[in-house]
Amino acid sequence: MVTFGYTIAYVADVDKALSFFEHAFGMQRKFITPEQDYGELSTGATTLSFAAHSLGQANLKDGYISATDSATPLGMEIALVTTDVHAAHCAAIEHGATELKAPELKPWGQTVSYVRCPSGILIELCTPVAS
Known about the structure:
The protein is α/β, with parallel strands linked by helices and 131 residues long.
């Protein structure tokens, strides 16, 4: 059996990435390496991690597309679930995110918005999906 352990986003500044999520969404920092090239946030069952571009370049010799440097968001997102999308959306913008789509009620009853954080990561803010 394989389980989903964590997501790592390569960013220009690990400490700044952690700080954005701490201040905008109230997440707790688990740790950051002394070199400040890798850090993790406590987010519930799955860990959200950030690594410096230098680590990404060392791990992937042929490179990768940097969300930090890309003019448009990458074709993947981090979805953060909340009961108050409007408040989370406003907090993200207040702490430096760029609004991509204001909160919207979807036909299936879920409220969803999209922002891009200062590190370039596409974030979906959404209410839980009713089962």
